[in-house]
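User: I'm preparing a small set of examples for a lab meeting where we compare how different chains pack in three dimensions. I only have the primary sequence for this one, and I'd like the structure in token form so I can line it up with the others. Please keep the answer compact; I'll paste it straight into my notes.
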Amino acid sequence: MRPEIKNGAGQSRRAFSLMEVMIAMGIFFMCTFVILSLVSSSLQNARRLQRPMVDAAMIASELSLTNQLAEERQSGDFGKAYPGYTWTADINEVMTNKLFQVDYVVQRSGSREVVQTMSVLFFRPKSPAGSLDGGTVGKPR
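Assistant: Understood. Below is the structure token output for the 141-residue chain.
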């Protein structure tokens, strides 16, 4: 609804009501915030693409191919796949029926910053006797 405003010369002008201006400003700011959130999420996704996503499952898949496990600590790096990252695996027998828990920690080479941790259970009945079965514990490498 636009009221008519008469100026001194007798001509009438049409004007916006306060409610129409408030609604228009609300719509404008909602659109602005939607656009800003889209830009922010796009920048965040671009940052994620620049950093390599190192996954400990790559090492766990190699260990899953073995038939025997011994309680020990293993470590290494990812080679050319992810230069600058190292991994450590602690293998412990958690049940007397040859159930092993392997705790993986992925770190950057120069720092102690933990990038990822993962814990996996493996059942390896052909493994030698571990600490729960009265056997000797494997020597850390």
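A couple of notes for your slides: The mean pLDDT is 82. Residues 4-50 form one domain.

User: Perfect, thanks.
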